[in-house]
Write a structure and sequence with these properties.
By secondary structure, the chain is an all-alpha fold. Helix content is about 55%, strand content about 0%.
Length: about 210
Amino acid sequence: MIAKKSDIFKRKKVKEEDFLNALDIISKKLIYKFKFGYHEIEDMKQQAAIFALEGLENYDNKRPLENFLWTHVRNRLFNFKRDNYFRPDNVCVGCPFFDPSCSVSTNQCAKFKNKNDCPIFSQSEHRNSLKKSLMKPVNIDHNNPTDLKAPTDLLSSITNSELIGIIEDHMETKYRETYLRLKGGSKVPKADLIKLQEHILEILKIHKLNPEDL
């Protein structure tokens, strides 16, 4: 858990104003590069703020705050996007059968004519396919009610881009960190999940969207 902001700033001898200014500068430079899927600009700003606060625990005042936060937040956003959308690295690189110039192959693989026969490559492709599928909007079948009793079921069931937009536009700030963590695949306390579920259901109710009819 992230300690109270005031405690972190006091222990690290960092002025909150300096932190916010540095965060604003690096966010403007990084969030557009790492934005993906349903993660909008505001989502990425929130995520960058979370990573910056977490990183502040390791700040030692031996280098400029902006430089430190830039490195930390950039690395965290890179991993966040990699783990939740795609892997930017080529899994074939480093493999003894990797044939980048196709000198003995037609698909850069000296062992498998069909690269999907390679378990490592196949697993990587399957993982990336699943991640990309999660980022594509799909229509909800209104004639097929979905069991939304569990918080994770609720979030995974509401995949329509318009509904996602309504929820995110009206989500209170105190629930956004839990929402982004869950959306990013991170573990969150059960109590926070339940509160988030109740909040989302309330948003749907206000907009006359009955989750049992989705």
